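Hi F.,

I've been meaning to write this up properly since the lab meeting, where we talked about keeping a consistent format for the predictions we share between groups. The idea is simple: the sequence comes first, exactly as it goes in, then the structure tokens exactly as they come out, then a line or two of notes. No screenshots and no reformatting. I'm using this chain as the first example so we have something concrete to point to.
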Amino acid sequence: MGEREVDELERGRRLIRSHEDLVIYQLAFEAAMDIFQMTKNFPKEERYSLTDQMRRSSRSVCANMAEAWRKRRYQAAFIAKLSDCEAEAAETQVWIKFAVKCAYLERDQAKVLYSTYNQVLSGLVHLIKSPKTWLL
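Output, unedited:
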């Protein structure tokens, strides 16, 4: 997703009133819920490792986005929280790869999830590169 697409999606046709109105937040939230459902089928011995890590990092993308939204008064704080989102999204992609290698996730499921996080990362980079658009 290019900068222009993100900008049109996020600013063009509707008013953004909260982080929940951001397309990238919605994508991240749905992906986190998909991960929650998929990890229910992981082996019990992964409960306190891969399962928890995938759930935690995917949810953290959303939580950090909410925090970033509330820190829009201060450019540095806004960008720092968005950078945290970016790191958590990238971490989630790593866990997705581990889940495939361990044969806990089907390759097709993983491709869809991985692609979704690429879209989220693209949107986050766009926000980080143009913070003034979003500041209060």
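Notes:
Residues 85 and 95 are 15 Å apart (CA to CA).
Residues 75-101 form the longest helix (27 residues).

If this format works for you, I'll send the rest the same way.

G.
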